[in-house]
Amino acid sequence: MTRSLYLSNVRLADGQFVSVSSVDGRIEAIGAHVTAPPGAHLEDGGGALLLPGFVEGHTHIDKSNWGRPWYRNEVGPLLTDRISNEREWRKTSGHDAAAQSLALSRAFVQMGTTRLRTHVDIDTDARLRHLEGVLATRQTMHDVLEMQIVAFPQSGMLVRPGTVELLGSALTEGADVLGALDPALIDGDPVASLDATFALADRHGKPIDIHLHEPGEIGAFTLRLLLDRAETMGMQGRVVVSHGFCLGALPERERDALLDRIAHRRVALLTSAPPSRTVPPLKLCRKKGITMFGGNDGIRDTWSPYGVPDMLERAMLIGMRYDLRRDDDLMIAFDCVSEAAARGCGFADYGLRAGARADLVLVDAASVAHAVVARPVRKLVVSNGRIVARDGALA
Q: Which residues contact 51 (CB under 8 A, 6 or more apart)?
């Protein structure tokens, strides 16, 4: 049975009033003189601003406490403290990755996110248990939330024998991307760690998304090794470096040389724009042709009490971190959670154009900049041609 939707009286970012028709989950036409398909469900947008569905480029839905009682955070200050604390807590608390990932996924959809990349912990304690929970959530939400799953060795890879094999099993079972974590500071051997990561990705034909928290010269050293392997293995355009804190702390000349190499190898960068860490230079990256996009990272988990599944809020935080004040600059912040995020993650058929997947968000805002700053209630959310939320509530 054909599923059709006709959305009239909505505004594009340039102020033009248009209508949108979609058939079977795809935008059929968008413009001032579009007519309704036969039998379409009709919706009057009331002059609201039309945005594309939002893209969450980096989160951890398997470990969230969203909707659960408050978690009292008394963890130590080191990265290894947080890793060990989380692994033990998940093992002893009864935390359910299936239930929590489903609750958070629904909240994302309610607030306008229609594409999402999530990292899922794979380790020798939990093995594939968390992955199985998130795979169940992906199946449940598949018609309204396009999800990529990253098999992520949160506790390290080489330091926990058997993890490489588990990561391979995760990729076979349905993970889309191979994750990695701080090859020097966690695995203790960046050469061997990156060799194992790229070999595994090559064997399974999967892209890579690496958490790189390593600071300064250590991070730069790891990044150079990674870029060498991306070129040698022919993985240009198939690698994301998440966080990349070192790129915000290097001397200008060294930083710019690394950015040129990143651009040449078409490596994308992900930032959550944390206020407490150095961050890659957003405008300079864009000027050099590097795809840089945004994500929440963890949301209400044992690592941090912060975060909400609202990509307009994340765009606002990106704007604040990078001192984006002009309306045109705030368009950059929104791009980080829309077009750039879709491009960086490799989500196809994205945007407000004929042929794209019909993922649409309506908000009462004067402009995109206004929407980012005010984060208004989502008047309407359409995912894959279906109305999934109305006036801030799931439909």
A: 13, 112, 334, 338, 360, 361, 362, 363, 368, 371
Q: What is the dihedral of CA 47, 53, 57, 61, to 10 degrees?
A: 110
Which has the closest alpha carbon to 61: 314, 321, 298?
298
Six-digit token pair at 377?
A: 């209630």
Domains of the chain: 4-53+350-394 (2.30.40.10), 54-345 (3.20.20.140)
Alpha-carbon gap, residue 282 to 272, rounded angstroms: 12
Q: In the structure encoding, which two tokens stand for residue 200, read together?
A: 């595994």
Residue type, 155: S
Position 90 pLDDT exceeds 90 = no
CB of 54 closer than 8 Å to CB of 113: yes
Distance CA 114, CA 138 (A): 12
Place of tokens 């009490």: 305
Spatial CB neighbours of 14, under 8 Å, sequence gap ≥ 6: none
Report pLDDT digits (tens) over 105-157: 999 999 999 999 999 999 999 999 999 999 999 999 999 999 999 999 999 99
What DSSP assignment string belongs to 115-175? EEEEEEE-BTTTBTHHHHHHHHHHHHHTTT-EEEEEEE-TT-STTSTTHHHHHHHHHHHT-
Backbone angles phi, psi at 269, to 5 degrees: -120, 140
Amino acid in the structure at residue 232:
T
Q: Which residues pair with 212 in a beta bridge?
A: 243
Determine phi and psi for 213, rounding to 5 degrees: -90, -15
DSSP SS3 for 203: helix
- Look up the pTM and report it: 0.97
Rounded distance, CA 395 to CA 71, Å?
A: 30
